[in-house]
Specification:
The chain is mainly alpha-helical. Among the domains are: 40 residues, no CATH class; 71 residues, no CATH class; 147 residues, Tetratricopeptide repeat domain (Serine Threonine Protein Phosphatase 5, Tetratricopeptide repeat); 75 residues; 131 residues, Histidine kinase-like ATPase, C-terminal domain (Heat Shock Protein 90). The protein has 33 helices and seven strands. It has a five-stranded mixed beta sheet. Helix 20 runs antiparallel to helix 21, helix 26 runs antiparallel to helix 27 and helix 31 packs antiparallel against helix 32. The N terminus is likely disordered. This is histidine kinase. Keywords: ATP-binding, Coiled coil, Kinase, Membrane, Nucleotide-binding, Phosphoprotein, TPR repeat, Transferase, Transmembrane, Transmembrane helix. It catalyses: ATP + protein L-histidine = ADP + protein N-phospho-L-histidine.
Length: 931
């Protein structure tokens, strides 16, 4: 505090000396004496000191944070992030998120919670980012802590690449990540640096160099494995598997990585993550056209999703439906799509609901249910238009589907207008999106009879699909082949059909195989090869009947042949009509050209007239401006003269005001100094009185507290002696009962009763030992199990082992168990050892009993009692035995919360696994022993 006041004084003196030199002319003019300046300097210093002390007291108050207040801040932030995460389909949630962020920030300021203020500002910045306000988001960076800056730069990178994958956005992504990396390195936090590196790897996989991204991920996994962080290694491996492109060259990397993830998360018992990895594998198999393996992964994944109640089950059902479509089982696919929709509604997955509706609409379209198809597509499109962020291509796929249904219903022109309107609203990105609209436009123009325009669009789709892989290419070839067949261009269709024929059958779906057979039938029919045409048509019908469950094959064949015959006649008439339409269109086009030429001439004349008028206007404005400049120059001279006179008067007035102000200021500051000195003196007296009173009160409370502590300690000592006395008396009572039983055995001649009394003696002796150890030890509720078992074995050796000479081998962990577990454990040992000595060693040389207690986890033990005797009789089931000893062992095992097993292997081995209530400090030891 003294140091801060000293620094404040030095700063104040420097400032005032500078002020003195700056206002020296005025001080001379006003004849202000040096004494007056000293008074002003002293007053200003006192004011600065008082301000510094007040600020220091205020900063100390901020250090006393309430846990309740910080929890309120965290709850507000959690609610804000919840609104931000769910805003995808409800833009109004972003305003709620900002409200929560402002409330959290206000509360953090009031209680001096620095982290809360930082997190609230980060949340607010992320909301502006979600709204697309990049400028405001970047402006918030300067108000954030360094870790929050790293998080926001990463969010900016994700947003940049999510909008549109243009070169500009991709470059921005890596710039943002480099800035995050630079801040992370300055922080010196390895965890933050690894997090940024992981983001680099992910973006390399998705938009950059895939091989480089894979290498970075592998390096991260090795780093986490060397650190022994299995959880982070598994998470990083999961990110690699999830983001790898589904290409054949990465198949080995993806499958082996997925299997490693499943092993890691099986050990960690993360069922939800295991199911997600299985879904990822299934999607990869689907892209490789291996539906059998995909289905094998999906079915158990769905069962795991049901157990964990995960919303990802929506995607699993949809994938399974797509497999059923490939198999030609549309009825089963319809059922799975409905399951997917129900799950999406249940888990509020509205973003996925649109995709599932689109897939269901496509299925209805394939089944020729146009009304249901249009209804479902419109539902999907309404959901998509409500979104604030779109998945690339999501809107265009629905535009294509709706336009297709409109075209099938005869609304071709309306469909083309709809496509043009939507293309402006949702322009396609480079990639698969570029094939969507050309394909549907080609089909619609073909319906209008504009085959040359349709062919151009189909060829555009084929050209784009050449760069996108076999799946897109095969689909484009299938579509253009169908177009050429429908327009009777057999020579152009044939090369594409030959390409389709050479595709392996396991790659083609049932619908693809059906279409190829239909196309081959049409080509053979046109070429006069009727035997081959009939063969292809029968194959087409067989596949089509499998898909749509058609029953009357013969009737359908007759109708199809009749339809083809009628269609040939109609095509001839249609071509004639098309020629007439083209002639009319050409005449109309010439008329429009003439009208356009006339309009252009009129426009040119109008522009020339406007230029002449504009030139005249410019001349008039130049003349007016010259007059204005002359008048302005004259006015400027008058203004300058008046300004000089005003400045002279102002100088005289200001000098007088300064003299007067400095005089009054000096008097006022002196009065303030005197009042401050008096106030500080009174405050000091009051603070001393309050401090003395508080000191006396604290001394009184300390004396009372000391008395309470002493009384508590005496009560604890008294309680310990009472508990020890209880254990001692219980032990004495048990010994009395044992002595009575021993005396009773002298008067019994019944062997069964004599045996029962001896067994009871042993059981009571086992409990008596526990109570004896409890009152002899410092702890009154726990005993050392190894010492207890050793004492019990010594007792049995003395009392029962005189004839058999059994060797005992003991391997027990030095653990302390509470009395609730020690007594059942002692009774189990008593029964097991007694049974072994009595029945196991009739013909055994060197009889031996092994007793061990080992760890099998952080909170579980296994007790083993093994002998080398004759073991159990073949067919004897201990769990169904009616003997008291076996019943006690099984019952006491359940009391321990464990399970008991019996094994015949060179004698009888009893294993009891149970969870243990450990004392503090023994959990780590038990974990080490288990490993």
């Amino acid at each position: 505090m003294i140091r801060s006041i000293s620094m404040t004084l030095n700063t104040s003196i420097r400032l005032l000396l500078a002020a003195k030199s700056r206002f020296a002319p005025f001080l001379i003019c006003g004849r202000i004496k040096k004494a007056c300046f000293r008074h002003i300097l002293l007053a200003f210093i006192c004011l600065m000191c008082t301000s510094a002390v007040a600020q220091q007291h205020q900063s100390k108050g901020y250090q006393k944070l309430s846990t309740k207040d910080t929890l309120r801040v965290k709850n507000l932030l959690d609610k804000g992030y919840e609104q931000l995460d769910q805003y995808l389909d409800q833009i109004e949630l972003l305003d709620s998120a900002i409200l929560f962020a402002k409330r959290a920030n206000s509360l953090s300021v009031n209680i001096g919670y620095a982290k809360g203020m930082d997190f609230a500002k980060l949340l607010e910045a992320r909301v502006y980012l979600a709204k697309g306000d990049i400028k405001t988001t970047k402006g918030r960076l300067k108000n954030l802590g360094r870790q929050s800056q790293v998080a926001l730069w990463i969010s900016l990178a994700k947003q940049a690449v999510a909008r549109r994958r243009t070169k500009e956005n991709i470059d921005s992504t890596f710039i943002y990540l480099h800035r995050a990396d630079a801040i992370a390195k300055n922080l010196g936090s390895t965890t933050v640096q690894l997090m940024v590196k992981s983001q680099f790897a992910m973006f390399q996989l998705t938009v950059g160099d895939t091989d480089k991204g894979v290498e970075i991920y592998k390096e991260l996994i090795r780093t986490y494995e060397l650190k022994g962080d299995e959880r982070m290694a598994g998470r990083t491996l999961t990110m690699l598997v999830s983001n790898l492109p589904h290409l054949a060259k990465y198949s080995r990397e993806l499958i082996s990585g997925a299997d490693r993830c499943i092993k890691i998360y099986t050990k960690l018992n993360h069922k939800d993550t295991i199911a997600m990895i299985m879904l990822c594998k299934a999607n990869f198999y689907r892209t490789q056209n291996d539906n059998t393996l995909a289905e094998k992964e999906l079915l158990p994944a769905i069962e795991l999703f049901k157990v964990t109640k995960s919303p990802v089950i929506v995607y699993a059902y949809a994938s399974l439906a797509n497999i059923c479509i490939d198999y030609g089982n549309n009825e089963k696919a319809l059922r799975y799509y409905i399951e997917s929709i129900n799950a999406a509604v249940k888990y509020k997955q509205t973003s996925r609901l649109a995709v599932t509706y689109q897939q269901l609409g496509a299925l209805y379209l394939a089944m020729n249910q146009l009304d249901k198809s249009m209804e479902t597509f419109k539902l999907a499109f309404e959901l998509v238009e409500k979104k604030t962020r779109l998945v690339p291509g999501e809107a265009l796929v629905l535009v294509r589907s709706i336009a297709d249904v409109m075209g099938r219903n005869g609304k071709v022109v309306e469909a083309l207008d709809f496509i043009d309107k939507m293309e402006k609203k949702y322009p396609p990105q480079p990639g698969p999106e570029q094939t969507v609209l050309p394909v549907i436009r080609g089909g619609l123009y073909a319906k209008l009879g504009k085959f040359d325009i349709a062919e151009k669009y189909y060829l555009d789709a084929v050209q784009v699909s050449d760069k996108l892989g076999s799946t897109f290419k095969n689909k484009a070839i299938d579509l253009i082949a169908g177009f050429y067949l429908r327009t009777r261009q057999w020579d152009k269709a044939k090369p594409y059909l030959e390409t389709l024929k050479n595709i392996p059958h396991n790659v083609l779906t049932a619908n693809d195989q059906r279409n190829i057979q239909l196309y081959l039938y049409r080509i053979d029919s046109a070429g006069g090869n009727y035997a081959s045409a009939l063969n292809h048509f029968l194959k087409y019908k067989a596949i089509n009947d499998t898909i749509y469950n058609t029953t009357n094959k013969k009737r359908y064949l007759e109708l199809q042949i009749q339809y083809e015959t009628d269609k040939k006649d109609k095509d001839i008439l249609l071509k004639q009509k098309n020629i007439q339409i083209l002639e009319k269109q050409d005449l109309l086009h010439q008329t429009l050209l003439h009208q356009t030429s006339l309009q252009m001439r009129l426009d040119q004349q109008k522009r020339q007239q406007e230029l002449k008028i504009s030139a005249l206007e410019d001349q008039r404005r130049d003349r007016d401006f010259t007059v204005f400049r002359l008048r302005a120059a004259e006015n400027d001279q008058n203004i300058k003269r008046l300004e000089k006179e005003a400045k002279l008067q102002q100088t005289l007035l200001s000098q007088a005001k300064i003299n007067k102000g400095l005089t009054y200021g000096g008097i006022l500051l002196l009065a303030i100094v005197v009042s401050l000195l008096l106030s500080r003196y009174r405050l000091k007296q009051r603070a001393n009185k309050l401090l003395n009173a508080q000191k006396e009160e604290i001394s009184q409370q300390n004396r009372s507290l000391q008395e309470l502590v002493e009384k508590k300690e005496s009560l604890i000592i008294e309680k310990e002696w009472l508990v020890k006395e209880i254990h001692h008396r219980v032990k004495n009572n048990l010994q009395i009962v044992i002595s009575l039983l021993r005396a009773q055995t002298d008067y019994l001649d019944n062997d069964v009763a004599l045996l029962a009394l001896k067994q009871s003696q042993h059981r009571m002796q086992a409990m008596s030992m526990i109570h004896q150890r409890l009152y002899q030890s410092e702890s009154m509720s726990c005993i050392n199990i190894r010492d207890y078992v050793s004492e019990m074995v010594a007792y049995f050796s003395d009392s029962m082992n005189r004839d058999t000479k059994v060797i005992f081998e003991i391997d027990m962990l030095p653990l302390s168990l509470d009395i609730g577990q020690a007594i059942p454990l002692g009774l189990i040992l008593n029964e097991s050892i007694t049974n072994a000595i009595k029945y196991a060693f009739e013909d055994t040389e060197n009889p031996k009993i092994e007793i061990s207690l080992a760890a099998i986890g952080e909170d579980a033990l296994t007790l083993m009692i093994k002998d080398n005797g004759k073991g159990l009789v073949t067919g004897f089931d201990p769990k169904k035995a009616k003997s008291l000893g076996m019943s006690l062992i099984l019952g006491l095992s359940k009391q321990l919360g464990g399970n008991c097993s019996f094994l015949n292997n060179n004698g009888l081995s009893i294993h009891i696994n149970f969870k243990v209530n450990l004392m503090s400090g023994e959990t780590a030891y038990l974990s080490v022993m288990a490993s």
